[in-house]
Amino acid sequence: MSSFPSLSPTRVHGLICGTLEPGPLNTLADIDGIAVGHRTTCEGDLRTGFTAIVPHPGNLFREKLPAAVEVINGFGKSAGLIQVDELGTLETPILLTNTFGVGTGVNALIRRAIAENPEIGRSTGTINPVVMECNDGYLSDIQAMALSEADAEAALKAAGSKVEQGSVGAGTGMSAFGFKGGIGSASRLFELGGRQHRLAALVLANFGRPGDLVLPDGRRPHPKEARQSEERGSVIVVLATDVPLESRQLKRIARRAGAGLARLGAYYGNGSGDIALAFSTACKIAHFEEGDFIVRDILKEDKIDVLFQAAAETTQEAVLNAMIASPAMRGRGRSKRPSLADWLDGHA
């Protein structure tokens, strides 16, 4: 393992989440094969976009990945989660966007899958597109429904190993704890079976009441002029690992994203949509499997604690990265959100 901790917006400010060592990039791209892309729309009254997570470079419909979802609080309008929960597999890239962009993202993923697999809906089953959302309507004109399938496809085509964070893609118009929110990511390294393994998170942070945020050093930033309000935001957490796991184990790991959110001061309010999805890249499940049985390596249950710890730490750090990487923003009407980075610079 490297003796030099990976820098991130959070670590630049001297804030350390947990004790596990981060990966070389300290992002979701530390998991081999995963790519992330954004399409950002920031003009006029629009502050919105798509973020795409491509779990592996092959054909996801034909080579699915084990996956699971944990609905921490279900105030949300995501698509595809029921089938992920039932079958335990992921068969499309993941799109993140605003609440009114979900249908557009679904159509884009369906068209993409059919183009790659013409048999979908004809000689084999249909496709389960996964699109998750948060409401960016405070800073952006969500009623404009401005995002197109071309925007979703642009995010997918832009996917690569460099994970841009902050006010980009789906995170462009998001808010968190009264500050500017957005897209954030983090990773952790650990050893299992004599080999180095990794778990990483990418979050869409749009949750938390002003004044509730707790930093790893115990400080509680409060944005100026922000009033206390109900918890009505949302957060999407995507966790990925290269450890071989079954969907039941992945669901247990996804549940630990809630521990990372709680460390930040969140309590999952009635109007908050808090969802975690986890997948493993360690084995692929063939759509056209010839045999009646498949054989897979699966982690021993009593070795899973380190993944629980990594899920909590990466979720916590990814949310802070999203906030610190986002500059102050003005949006629709007189709306504005200050930057957590500016608060930290002023309270160093």
Provide tags for this entry.
hydrolase, 348 residues, L-amino peptidase D-ALA esterase/amidase, protease, globular, alpha+beta, aminopeptidase, Peptidase_S58_DmpA, ArgJ-like_dom_sf, seven-stranded mixed sheet
Give the CA-based shape: globular
Q: Which strand-content bin applies to the residues?
A: 25-35%
Q: How is the CATH topology named?
A: L-amino peptidase D-ALA esterase/amidase
Indicate the mean pLDDT: 96
Structural class of the helix and strand makeup? alpha+beta
Q: Write down the CATH class.
A: Alpha Beta
Main sheet overview:
7 strands, mixed
> What is the count of helical runs?
8
Report the order of strands and helices.
HEEEHEEHEHEEEEEHHEEHEEH
Annotated CATH architecture: 4-Layer Sandwich
Give the CA-CA distance, first to last residue. Answer: 31 Å
Q: What is the CATH superfamily label? A: L-amino peptidase D-ALA esterase/amidase
Q: How many domains make up the 3D coordinates? A: 1
Number of strands: 15
What is the CA-based Rg, rounded? 19 Å
Q: Runs with pLDDT <50, length 5+? A: none
Residues in helices, as a percent range: 10-25%
Task: Tell me about this structure.
This protein is an alpha+beta fold. The chain has one domain: L-amino peptidase D-ALA esterase/amidase, CATH 3.60.70. The protein is built from 8 helices and 15 strands. The strands form 4 sheets. Strands 3, 4, 9, 10, 11, 12 and 13 form a 7-stranded mixed β-sheet that branches. Helix 3 packs across helix 4 and helix 6 crosses helix 7. The model has no long low-confidence stretch (mean pLDDT 96).
